[in-house]
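lol ok so funny story. i was supposed to be doing the assay writeup but got distracted and ended up predicting the structure for this chain instead. priorities right. anyway since i did it might as well share w the group, maybe its usefull for someone
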Amino acid sequence: MIKDASGTTVEIRPKAGSTVEGAINHLITAARAEAGASPGQNIPAMMAGQAKTFNVGIIGYGLSAKVFHIPFIQVTPTLRLHSILQRSPKSGDSAPEDHPEAKHFTSLDEFLADSSLDVVVLSTPPGTHFSFAQQALAAGKHVFVEKPFVPTVREAEELIKQSREAGRLICVYQNRRWDSDFLTVQQLLANSGNKDKSQSGSSAVVDADIGRVVEFNTYFERYRPDKPTNWKGTLPMSQGGGVLYDLGSHLLDQVYVLFGLPGSVYAKFSVQRDGMLVDATTATAEEMEPDSIVVTLYYPSRGGLTVRASATVHSAETRQPRFWIRGTKGSYYKTGLDTQEPQLRSGMKVGDAQFGLEDDDSCAARLVTVADDGKLEERALPNITPPQTYARFYELFARALASGKEEDVPVPATQAADVLRIIEAAKESATTGREVPLAR
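and the output, tada:
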């Protein structure tokens, strides 16, 4: 029994003598007709109540667009790759050749003038984010912007104000909130000292308790003796370039998710490749353009918790450190970066069964806990499974688009602005040599 367009209940009977398969096909055909669905429409989408599909356009066609955005747009049911703006397509690097199903533009004005476009993804150098986001919001589009959001808190606040006035959403692509090791750490800290393990916020429970965290170290160390030649190595900090905005924004965002804004910040910047330290006697942080940073955050309201975030270029290690956490009842030490980026770079598909699963040979986590008798017990602690992956990020963003609510955005611009407050305090500290209070 189904209802027709007028709401009248209609009984659907398969033809006499038909097979079970034929009867099922008959019912599906009738259901499609009743719902007004096209012959090729996806059945789950039809059953979901004709959920709106949002047309997504991307500005920029570099690594970020190809690896971190397009693959996830394509697997998110309510998103559609609608258009790509690439200034100068060329053989071997051509959005029109790679994605003939999409619309293609070389002009920003023409791209934004397309009334069928709902969402703009900014996959461009950070110095362009503020201007492009302003124009996209003015054109009535939602904005999904790569990190770093913008270079300054002032610009972030202006965009937040504009988005609210326009009734549009801004989401910042802090994808490493969905790294498997970070999600494991997040659950470990939620469980530690928490009797109600069901409140840890994950589908898989980390069976461990390291007590109150007293020291949290997070690393993005590399052995990169040669300076990058792309914008990450040439764009000044005043335009959102450099290690503080690139890798530092990931580290500090994860710390912010776990602990919120710190009470104060102390930072040291250096140019390890040249053997130079940034301080008030040499130059400002912007003039020095450091390649390595160590940022210390203090949390008086959390029992004196100290957090250190480090990103350097002369770490000659076969297993780079990632997290080192010390608590009153144990510790956690993890090596190796999340595997999603290298997997995507190598061509692995988002739907592959191995996507998001780390290689134990290169990534390992050691957990030490204090037993009831006071002895220390050590064991391996695997990441939570199954991995949520960056696909979860896009799924949550799509849900926010459907609801239209700022509170549903997985990484709202207000949070990105708070991370920029930490970044600006770190720049001030590195230049002056002083600990900088962080007041809102």
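The domain at 177-388+414-437 is CATH 3.30.360.10 (Dihydrodipicolinate Reductase; domain 2). The longest helix spans residues 413-432.
back to the writeup now i swear
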